Amino acid sequence: MKEIEQLDYYQDSINFILHTQADDGAICWEQNTKLDPWDHIESAMALTVAGQTEAAKKAFEWMQSNQESVGGWFSEYKAGLPSKKRMETNFAAYLCVGIWHFYLATKDKSFVEEYYPVLDRAMEFVISMQTDSGDVLWALDEKGSKLDDSLITGCSSIYKSLECFFAIKKLLNKDLGNLEGQMRSLRGAITNKPERFDRGWKSKERYSMDWYYPILCGVITGKAGLERFQHKEKEFIVEGLGCKCVVEEPWVTIAESSELVMALAHLGEIDRAQEIFSWLHQWKDPKDNLYWTGYVYPDKAFWPIEKPTWTAAAVLLAADTLYKFTDGSELFLRDWSK
């Protein structure tokens, strides 16, 4: 499938994200559904890959316009208004990844300068949620109280966000403060303090994201990262289909599979990454050429019946990582704090 190595192959997904984007820049899961800030940023990054820089800027403008005074964003919006008023640290931090990716692809330093105050407020909020053990609490509740638990996937994503914030500070000659120490502390919690995670609910170890996110986000690298991948490879990967979302469910998901592809590329396992990526295009709906969320293979059925923007975005980011459409393709392959 040589065509998957060309950006044109993904044009229907690009058009879908553009069509879904509202006039104010908001990118919902599907048109007139819900928006969450993390997936919104992921879609903005896909627009950057597609060279749709003005549309990507509009998406970031939505983030700028909707930032709360504490520095974060609410976890869900419908029809332009917050529908869930929890405020998640991972969502707030991810804007640093989106803005740094935009810079890598466009070299637009003035855009980074414009957004630095937004990023600084967001990361001040995130760091305020870091515990003495190094983990970052996952959210504020609807009343603004800290929810006393942490997530491996969320904290791994935050680690990548801190890394990108570090790079942004260096680019703009800003004081780094204790950012290196905060990153070191978070990395130590993820790698050495499992007791800090899933303290108040059933362990999320059964989710593939907890397995590959520390690799994807540069927390666990090199030989240790490869060993982590190989340890659960047979549990989560269904040959010829993709990566499961949850270990006990016969359900492969396209976004998780795409992220796993990027994690493998980070490890230098390009052949395996390309192999898994090649499986994913069978999960397009031939009617509109868009990717379904996932496939339940015993039932030979797509579920849920949705083709969200963030799934299309994850595929585009994986394709860029493998086939180098933009200079942003290095985003998940390098440590930007070096």
Q: What key attributes describe this structure?
A:
three-stranded antiparallel sheet, alpha+beta, five-stranded antiparallel sheet, 51% helix, single chain, 338 residues, Glycosyltransferase
In short:
The protein is α+β, with helices and mostly antiparallel strands and 338 residues long.
Commentary on this structure:
- The protein is of the alpha+beta class.
- The protein has one domain: Glycosyltransferase.
- It has helices spanning 11-20, 37-49, 53-66, 89-106, 109-128, 152-171, 179-192, 208-216, 222-236, 254-266, 270-279, 309-323, and strands spanning 34-35, 76-78, 81-84, 87-88, 139-140, 146-147, 237-238, 242-244, 251-253, 284-285, 290-291, 294-296, 301-302.
- The strands form four sheets. Strands 7-8-9-12-13 form a five-stranded antiparallel β-sheet.
- A hairpin with a 4-residue loop joins strand 10 (284-285) and strand 11.
- The longest helix has 20 residues, at 109-128.
- It is globular.
* CATH class type: Mainly Alpha
Quickly give the CATH architecture.
Alpha/alpha barrel
Quick one: overall form?
A: globular
Strand content: 5-15%
List the helices and strands and how they pair.
Blueprint: H1 11-20, E1 34-35, H2 37-49, H3 53-66, E2 76-78, E3 81-84, E4 87-88, H4 89-106, H5 109-128, E5 139-140, E6 146-147, H6 152-171, H7 179-192, H8 208-216, H9 222-236, E7 237-238, E8 242-244, E9 251-253, H10 254-266, H11 270-279, E10 284-285, E11 290-291, E12 294-296, E13 301-302, H12 309-323
Antiparallel strand pairs: 1-2, 2-3, 4-5, 5-6, 7-8, 8-9, 9-12, 10-11, 12-13
